[in-house]
Write a structure and sequence with these properties.
68% helix; mainly alpha; 190 residues; cell membrane (chains A, B); 6% strand; homodimer; CASP-like protein (chains A, B); two-stranded antiparallel ribbon
Chain lengths: 190, 190
Amino acid sequence: MGGLTQKNVVENENNGSNMAETMLRLVPMALCVVALVIMLKDSQTNNFGSLSYSDLGTFRYLVHANGICAAYSLLSAIISALPRPTTLPRAWTFFLLDQVLTYIILAAGAASTEVVYLGYKGDTAVTWSETCGSFGGFCRKATASVSITFIVSLCYVGISLLSSYRLFSKYDAPVVGHYNNKGGVEISTY
Amino acid sequence: MGGLTQKNVVENENNGSNMAETMLRLVPMALCVVALVIMLKDSQTNNFGSLSYSDLGTFRYLVHANGICAAYSLLSAIISALPRPTTLPRAWTFFLLDQVLTYIILAAGAASTEVVYLGYKGDTAVTWSETCGSFGGFCRKATASVSITFIVSLCYVGISLLSSYRLFSKYDAPVVGHYNNKGGVEISTY
């Protein structure tokens, strides 16, 4: 195989890897937008009164988290699609922001799940009523939005793994030399 | 420097790194136990009635999450203190379990924060009352337990970074060869 062919193979493999990462970042972007729109349109008015997502602080936080996540996903997808080498500062930036986004979106999902749970079950000890008995449509939409947010969290767990692999595989392995019982030095290699 | 001296330096550095990791794992263990005990003892009885942590599903989840986290932290601290080389299966196990624990404890903290927030602020739209007006002592203890859980989350974010560094630095860097505009091949090295 000639030198040029070898280089083309490397180039193609790298483009394929970039393409996969771009897709992995576009999927949560789409899901975030869907979760955002479902939650924004979530309001119900009936004989018991009126209830909107903006009445609950957690759902407002969920909307913001999904908005930030959608914007970041789009931006990072565009950057990862650019055919440029992965520099160390870029790997660090992606790694740190991916981690932060994962924690933000997971926290939003967990807190919102708690509110949806309280809405369905209520809590007699602290006199919180089962809101979903009166506002079933509201709760179903909220559940859908929260479920999609959890899928986004899973995507971001995957993205975090990928970006930590990209970052840390640039560094050398930590020293793992040891004396074993027989007094020799044992080096782990794989 | 002779070969034996060099080996001793390697050995000492490695022991220091293991010691640091063991300490990093013992700190969240202690914090988990504190958060667990505070929450377990959190109950209040007054003229308005009686309220215990076990009346709220989220706080029960928080107690379980803290218990699991304390047990895992202790076990992993013991294993990381053993003077054995970090093998690839061990690095993978630590990495995956550390990630799972980080997400579990962060989700417990986020959901519990939401309940504490609702306890203090209430929500008039869904007729949830401000429980903390009547059960101030209960809410203060719950807040303390949740705050400590967040510090545990921060510790676990650090532990996750460490274990992902340990794992992925064992792998080679992904291929980053590219044609630049001048037709040559550009390889990023740092």
